[in-house]
Amino acid sequence: MNKKKFDLNYTGIRVVPNKMQKDVINWMLHLQRYVFALKYCVNKNVLDVACGSGYGASLISSVAKNVEGIDIDRKTIGWAKINNHFYSPVKFKISNIEKNKIYGQYDCVISFETIEHLKNPEFLLNNIKNSLNDYGVLIFSAPVNEPYNKFHKRSYTWQSIDNLIKNSFSLYVEWYNQTLEGIFKGREEVLFLWWELPIKIYLLF
């Protein structure tokens, strides 16, 4: 596969690990979420929705039984296939998560910083629900109470995202906040700088 054909530039949205030397804090926050998810993926079949460049799916494959990653962007999936061979192989596929059904059954579905980019997040959440095995886990994050972001189609408060998730899931939910210091249980509203916006991560059992 031609590496130059799938070369990615870092624009501040999609993580490109080898091009974030000037945005180390953002890289750390993205990676931190996947490190948090590792313990829920041990020996599991895992799907990473909107996997981007695949760095997270690759990390998860170090502990999971099987990992698949899907993303809408052909070039990004091409980059992921070329550059993620550190642990067990990951199956990367192109998919439009606002239109395409998720095929397969999974023990854990991960989707970080995704729903704010969607016009119809309800479709995705219902799709994920149908793809989870009994006692399956969904782990996802989204920025809340953030300032205007031209790349986002929706903005969320704690309440609006709570309402959204309850429309699709009625099972057990855990809430977490993310800061530079780590990820902590709870949803206290804390003022951060723009790159420290509180992140909500749901665990649905």
What is the structure about, briefly put?
With about 200 residues, the protein is of the alpha/beta class.
Report on this model:
By secondary structure, the chain is an alpha/beta fold. Helices cover 25% and strands 24% of the residues. The chain is built from 5 helices and 9 strands; from the N terminus they run αβαβαββαβαββββ. The chain has helices spanning 24-37, 55-60, 74-83, 121-131, 158-168, and strands at residues 45-49, 66-71, 91-94, 106-112, 132-143, 173-174, 176-179, 182-185, 199-204. The strands form 2 sheets. It has a 7-stranded mixed sheet. The chain has a two-stranded antiparallel ribbon with strand order 7-8. Strand 1, helix 2 (55-60) and strand 2 (66-71) form a beta-alpha-beta unit.
Topology:
Elements lengths: L23 H14 L7 E5 L5 H6 L5 E6 L2 H10 L7 E4 L11 E7 L8 H11 E12 L14 H11 L4 E2 L1 E4 L2 E4 L13 E6 L1
Parallel strand pairs: 1-2, 1-4, 2-3, 4-5
Antiparallel strand pairs: 5-9, 6-9, 7-8
Helix pairs in contact: 4-5
